[in-house]
Write a sequence for this structure.
């Protein structure tokens, strides 16, 4: 066993002696280069961290401003559609909609079906106004206002008539009572 250990150690010594010795000056120079590179990477990392924090703050500020502007626009439309000047729309950080009625927040699901229809119209109008501020988009309603009583329909009609002065409003419906809301269009097929 001792002879085997001597043989193993002799082979290991031969391998070590066969290697090129470490040049201490080169190693120190390489270490200095790596230290400079590390310092540069640390500065870059700090700059990226600062940039990320600033961009996050700017994004939050933009979303907050954007959210508030959108809520104001939707509130204006909702008030026109409902005739109730006390109600307002709020949007949280994830743009979840709540209606504030008499100082208390109400989820859209808690509104009557007719009020929900009015809210969804106000949402569509508000989003379109904010996103397409420089482009006048037409609005297309396909069999809308299913849950509205006569009073709500009258308010919606007045709001859409006002909207029709600034953009095209297309109302597709099988209901005869909507024919008086605008100019009927009949599509003819064939020759």
């Amino acid at each position: 066993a001792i002879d085997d250990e001597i043989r193993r150690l002799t082979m290991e010594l031969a391998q070590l002696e066969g290697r090129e010795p470490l040049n201490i000056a080169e190693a120190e120079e390489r270490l200095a280069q790596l230290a400079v590179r590390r310092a540069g990477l640390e500065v870059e990392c700090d700059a990226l961290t600062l940039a990320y924090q600033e961009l996050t703050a700017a994004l939050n500020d933009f979303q907050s401003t954007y959210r508030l502007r959108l809520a104001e626009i939707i509130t204006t439309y909702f008030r026109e559609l409902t005739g109730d000047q006390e109600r307002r729309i709020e949007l949280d950080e994830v743009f979840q909609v709540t209606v504030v009625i008499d100082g208390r927040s109400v989820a859209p699901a808690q509104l009557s079906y007719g009020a929900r229809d009015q809210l969804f119209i106000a949402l569509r109008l508000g989003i379109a106004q904010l996103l397409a501020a420089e482009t006048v988009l037409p609005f297309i309603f396909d069999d809308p206002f299913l849950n509205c009583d006569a009073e709500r329909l009258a308010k919606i009609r007045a709001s859409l008539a006002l909207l029709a002065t600034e953009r095209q409003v297309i109302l597709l419906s099988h209901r005869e009572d909507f024919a008086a809301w605008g100019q009927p269009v009949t599509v003819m097929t064939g020759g």
